[in-house]
Amino acid sequence: MKKKYLVIIYSIAIFVFVVLYLSLNKNNVYTTQENIGKKISVIQLDYFDKPGEFNIQEISNFNFTLLNFWASWCGPCRKEHKYLVELSSNSNLKIIGVNFKDDKKNAMEFLKEMGNPFFILTKDPEGKKSVNFGIYGIPETILINKDLKILKKYVGPLSTKDVREIQRIVKK
Predict the structure, then answer these.
(1) Rounded to an integer, what distance in angstroms lies between the CA atom of residue 168 and that of residue 6?
(2) Residues 120, 133 contacting (CB under 8 angstroms)
(3) pTM of the model
(4) Fewer CB within 10 Å, N or C, the chain?
(5) Which of 90, 86, 84, 89 is nearest to 139 (CA)?
(6) For residue 156, is pLDDT > 90?
(7) Which residue ranges make up each domain of the chain?
(8) In terms of Cα–Cα distance, which of 42, 36, 4, 154 is closest to 87?
(9) Beta carbons of 60 and 71 less than 8 angstroms apart
(10) Burial 19-45 (b: 16+ CB within 10 A, else e)
(11) How many C-alpha atoms does 45 have within 13 Å on its Cβ side?
């Protein structure tokens, strides 16, 4: 009977060891960079400040669009906001804000305090529609051309370097 338990314990130990060993060789880093170069499909986003839905197909009316996912409760969003304000002065670029899992009142206060760089403001109160864009945290920003092709994706707050790169791309 004792020998039977030892065989079971050794079998379980070997199984756990094999599973752990095999998992060491897997790359579990989630990245959405594979979306670069792909076209955005039809995705509906609710307008933030009025009834109705913004259809992502409307982006084809703009030369370049910066789709920015943000929230008032997000510290890094506050850090990058000055760069969005700077980019909003570029006539070749329209910025669409997607307010992510946020309280409307807090979001409005954020924009009143920091400035509103968004040409169009939408919302994703549950965070479910943002997943379709490959968003898994905020802030994230996607640069899209008029053909709805994703040119660049910025994970985390925009930096001075990112702003210069965006300006260089949209100048063409």
Answers:
(1) 67
(2) no
(3) 0.78
(4) N
(5) 84
(6) yes
(7) 38-171
(8) 154
(9) no
(10) eeeeeeeeeeeeeeeeeeeeebeeeeb
(11) 29
Choose the weakest-confidence range: 21-25, 28-32, 82-86, 150-154: 28-32
User: At 54, which amino acid appears?
Assistant: F
Q: Are 141 and 158 in contact (CB under 8 A)?
A: yes
Q: How far is CA 51 from CA 54, 122, 164, in A?
A: 10, 10, 35
For residue range 56-103, what is the model confidence (pLDDT) as tens digits? 777 778 899 999 999 999 999 999 999 999 999 999 999 999 999 999
Which tokens go with 12? 């379980």
Check pLDDT > 60 for residue 28: no
Cβ-contact 113, 85 below 8 angstroms = no
Give the model's pLDDT for residue 29.
47
| 98 contacts 45 by C-beta, under 8 angstroms | yes
Question: Looking at domain 38-171, what is its CATH homologous superfamily?
Answer: Glutaredoxin (3.40.30.10)
pLDDT score, position 26: 60
